[in-house]
Design goal:
Layout lengths: L1 H17 L4 H18 L13 H30 L8 E6 L5 H13 L3 E7 L2 E6 L7 H20 L1
Helix pairs in contact: 1-2, 3-5, 4-5
């Protein structure tokens, strides 16, 4: 089942990359997807049934909009800090408690945090993630956890768990 799922996902990705429905393109996409499924299928997720549920793709699209908006806001925040004469930064590493259970969900969250300007995921240990933050707003763990991961975590949970 997971080989079929990785074939389908690879083929859909191929069609999005090439954006062409020519017969030669479809044949090459099918062959490339079969090779990809054969080589990487054993490394794919253990349970692929959740990835066949359409509501997860809806939440993925919502998450992409939320992520894009948060990146735009973070870019302006970092630009402000760089251009400000006093350069108002208060860097620090904070420990954020995660509500995610699966490794892929934790990895996606860590990558989302790292791709957002002003934050870098340093390490994931158990159900906690350590994040370097350009401006530590608060010493309260609940407040900075909500500010760092809360905006992404609820959507990632709907997609990957």
């Amino acid at each position: 089942m997971k080989y079929i799922a990785i074939f389908i996902l690879s083929f859909i990705f191929w069609l999005f990359l090439t954006f062409s429905l020519d017969l030669s393109n479809i044949i090459i996409g099918v062959v490339a997807s079969i090779i990809t499924a054969f080589i990487f299928g054993r490394y794919f997720l253990k349970d692929v049934i959740p990835f066949l549920q359409p509501q997860r793709y809806f939440w993925l699209i919502v998450y992409l909009f939320i992520f894009t908006w948060e990146c735009i806001k973070a870019n302006f925040d970092v630009a402000y800090r760089v251009l400000h004469p006093a350069m108002p930064i208060k860097p620090g590493i904070v420990k954020v408690k995660l509500g995610l259970k699966t490794n892929i969900a934790k990895t996606i969250l860590a990558n989302s945090i790292t791709m957002t300007p002003g934050t870098i995921s340093v390490d994931i240990i158990g159900d906690e993630i350590y994040v370097h933050w350009i401006y530590v707003y608060s010493e309260n763990p609940e407040e900075y956890s909500q500010r760092i991961s809360g905006r992404f975590e609820k959507y990632i949970k709907k997609i990957f768990e």
